[in-house]
Amino acid sequence: ACHLMLRVINGAEILSGGGIGDAERALRDLFDQGRAFTRQSNRHVFCLFLDELDALCPRREASGRSHSRIVAQLLTLMDGVDASTNSRMLVFGATNLPHSIDPALRRPVVYVPLPDQDDRFKNVCREAALLALRENIHMEEIDVRHFQQALLLTSPVSSEESLETFQRFHDKQGAHD
């Protein structure tokens, strides 16, 4: 069995300390926590999810010295992940503004597009089946209301315009697939 620890951190949370060096210290503490967890066993995996990465790591030329130090610290910590954790530490970042993130952090990017029509259909079917199962473990039929509920749960939350912006950004950056 694999033991997974997931830490979800909002970029603004890291910045909330306010003091000089607090954000860098918070990042080091998170990575130290990940290294300590992965050392417990070769079956331990640590996932760090940094939400709103654009708030934490804006382009250095467009931000102040404190943000430059934060970007440099995160890059240094990420460079040391493979060696110190035998690749059992994963760092993910999410943003709605990929063009606002410092270019050095965009280099190792893997672009994950939205699912296509076929995958969306499969997601709705899976969600409908799970809804029926959760509702009554002995139910043998999945009916229309389960699909209606599943459609509500899997509906897109991004506009077509914003999706096109992400695709243009991906095409321009040449992110790795």
Q: If you had to describe this structure to a student in words, what would you say it looks like?
A:
This protein has 177 residues and is mainly alpha-helical. The chain has helices spanning 11-15, 22-39, 53-56, 65-79, 81-85, 103-106, 117-135, 144-153, 160-173; strands at 3-10, 44-51, 89-93. The chain folds into two domains: 3-111, 3-Layer(aba) Sandwich (Rossmann fold); 117-153, no CATH class. It contains nine helices and three strands, in the order E-H-H-E-H-H-H-E-H-H-H-H. The model has no long low-confidence stretch (mean pLDDT 78).
Number of domains: 2
Percent helix among the residues? 40-55%
List the helices and strands in order.
Answer: EHHEHHHEHHHH
Instruction: Tell me, briefly, the overall form.
Output: globular
Q: Bin the strand percentage.
A: 5-15%
- Under CATH, the homologous superfamily of the largest domain reads P-loop containing nucleotide triphosphate hydrolases
- Rounded mean pLDDT is 78
CATH class category of the largest domain: Alpha Beta
Assigned CATH architecture of the largest domain: 3-Layer(aba) Sandwich
